[in-house]
Design brief:
This protein is an alpha/beta fold and about 300 residues long. It is about 30% helix and about 15% strand. It has a 7-stranded parallel sheet with strand order 8-7-6-9-10-11-12. A 5-stranded parallel sheet has the order 2-1-3-4-5, with helices on one face. α1 packs across α8 and α2 packs across α4. It binds NADPH dihydro-nicotinamide-adenine-dinucleotide phosphate and oxalic acid.
Length: about 300
């Protein structure tokens, strides 16, 4: 039994130690050390080289080392090989922290206070009660729902949007493209936690931003390709949007001269909102390998047709 890990090498060493401790019968190889490729049963990967999968004739399951699977080219993965995305507590906790931080920063006007401090200006801004701040999440999956549950503890007025209908206590849920405008009309802070698919690419468009109330703010923790960058610059320039917090962009990193870098109303972070944590993720993959060996259903298998 052999596992090949092709993702962050530092974290790979931690994965290797966890496998050695918990499943010494499984060979664990951290890229670029691969062992005999014809013996690889399971691949754990982030952005694998395009030709890698065809060199693995005995591949049984492909595990994405992240929650998203948009970095994989499905056409290179044999149809009978399930693709499993990462659903693990470490990613969830990281995303809850990041989005909570971002919402609180926007809600409590930190952008304005940073500008005021730089200008030597001591000027209180009226505090908006949390119940009067409407926070909306696009994507009501594992991460969207976890984030909403935590935001609910602050008392925000919460809504969410997904492809299929949801019933989440304390959250006004909208489903489907026809409901998008109505959902956006009610979001003072919009959080994108969608997967990147053919349907969601470019969804943070001029039209989407125009549907938000004047002065709204955007948090993008989905993927950079969700966002129309020029539309954001235009919306900030006109004052229709007040601020954006972006953890993802295209390309990553942005070129040095890109206007986002020094924009006074944009805060960027280098795709760190949440990260797969070896301590929890390796155990989740081990559990899935055990399920596979026992002929049980795997957790987190994606639907290639939907793209997530
Ligand atoms: P899930 O697959 O659990 O949830 C995806 C959600 O998006 C579902 O609610 C789904 O709707 C909804 N959705 C998908 N397509 C559409 C559509 N066309 N219209 C409306 N809703 C749609 O994913 P996760 O919550 O685990 O992760 C979401 C994304 O977060 C990842 O794909 C990744 O891009 C990003 N991410 C970013 C990280 C970072 O550090 N910045 C870290 C981890 C993830 P339905 O429920 O109806 O199927
Ligand atoms: C992920 C990510 O998809 O880190 O897990 O973006």
């Amino acid at each position: 039994m052999s596992v090949l890990y092709k993702a962050d090498p530092d974290r790979g060493r931690a994965w290797s130690a966890i496998f050695a401790r918990n499943a010494p019968d499984i060979e664990f190889h951290v890229w670029p050390e691969t062992g005999d490729l014809t013996k690889v049963d399971y691949l754990v990967a982030w952005e694998p080289p395009p030709a890698l999968v065809e060199k693995l004739p005995n591949l049984k399951v492909l595990f994405s080392s992240g929650a998203g699977v948009d970095h994989l080219d499905f056409s290179t993965i044999p149809p009978d090989v399930p693709i499993v995305r990462m659903v693990e507590p470490g990613i969830v906790d990281g995303m809850i922290e990041y989005v909570t931080l971002a919402v609180l920063a926007l809600h409590r006007d930190l952008f304005d206070y940073m500008r005021q401090q730089a200008a030597g200006n001591w000027q209180p801004i009226k505090v908006v009660p949390a119940a009067a701040r409407r926070v909306g999440v696009m994507g009501l999956g594992v991460l969207g729902q976890a984030v909403l549950a935590r935001l609910g503890t602050f008392g925000y007025s919460l809504s969410g949007w997904s492809r299929t209908a949801k019933d989440i206590p304390g959250v006004v849920c909208h489903a489907g493209a026809d409901t998008l405008k109505g959902f956006l009309n009610q979001c003072d802070i919009l959080i994108c936690l969608l997967p990147l698919t053919d349907e969601t690419k470019g969804i943070l468009s001029q039209r989407t931003m125009a549907a938000l109330p004047r002065g709204a703010a955007l948090i993008n923790v989905g993927r950079g390709a969700h966002l129309d960058q020029q539309a954001l610059l235009d919306a900030l320039a006109s004052g229709h949007l007040s601020a954006a917090i972006l953890d993802v962009c295209v390309p990553e990193p942005l070129p040095e001269a890109h206007p986002f870098w020094r924009h006074p109303h944009i805060l960027m972070t280098p795709h760190i909102a949440s990260m797969t944590q070896p301590e929890t993720a390796a155990l989740v993959v081990l559990d899935n390998i055990a399920r596979h060996r026992n002929g049980e259903p795997l957790m987190g298998v994606i639907d290639r047709f939907k793209g997530y």
